[in-house]
């Protein structure tokens, strides 16, 4: 395989991910940046991890107040809810509402199942190798992006 083949594969991956994000945005009625938040919360829930504002802020590389505003807006629109942290009554976890969970699952239809089946077929060594390659591609893309 040549560099052209790899570039073509990355282009196909980008197009597929863009199409998936488009389907999700349309189905959920949200913007691209709001979808990023919902996807993060959905993926965390699937991995049985909790999400706090600081987790989102770190993931999005935004300030806490900016993320709080986004979470507030998504809560008002019925996509997110805050639930008490049982270990610390002062803090809250962020979750998808049941309605958004259902809509997200419907929009993803069998995509998650296919991805899970594919990813679970990789050995630990293969997974580590793919993560390393993806991280290198992301780094190259980020370093090649024009500064605002």
Write up this protein.
The chain is mainly alpha-helical. 70% of the residues lie in helices and 10% in strands. The protein has 7 helices and 2 strands; from the N terminus they run ααααββααα. The protein has a two-stranded antiparallel ribbon with strand order 1-2. The chain is globular and about 55 Å long. It starts with a helix and ends with a helix. The model has no long low-confidence stretch (mean pLDDT 90).
Cα Rg: 17 Å
Number of helices: 7
Query: pLDDT under 50 segments (min length 5)?
Result: none
Proportion of residues in extended strands: 5-15%
Question: Mind describing the biggest β-sheet?
Answer: 2 strands, antiparallel
Query: What is the approximate shape?
Result: globular
User: How many strand elements?
Assistant: 2
Helix content: over 70%
Q: What is the ordering of alpha helices and beta strands?
A: HHHHEEHHH
Derived from helix and strand composition plus strand pairing, the structural class reads mainly alpha
The strand order across the widest sheet is: 1-2
Distance between the termini: 35 Å
Arithmetic mean pLDDT: 90
Structural features:
single chain; mainly alpha; two-stranded antiparallel sheet; 2 strands
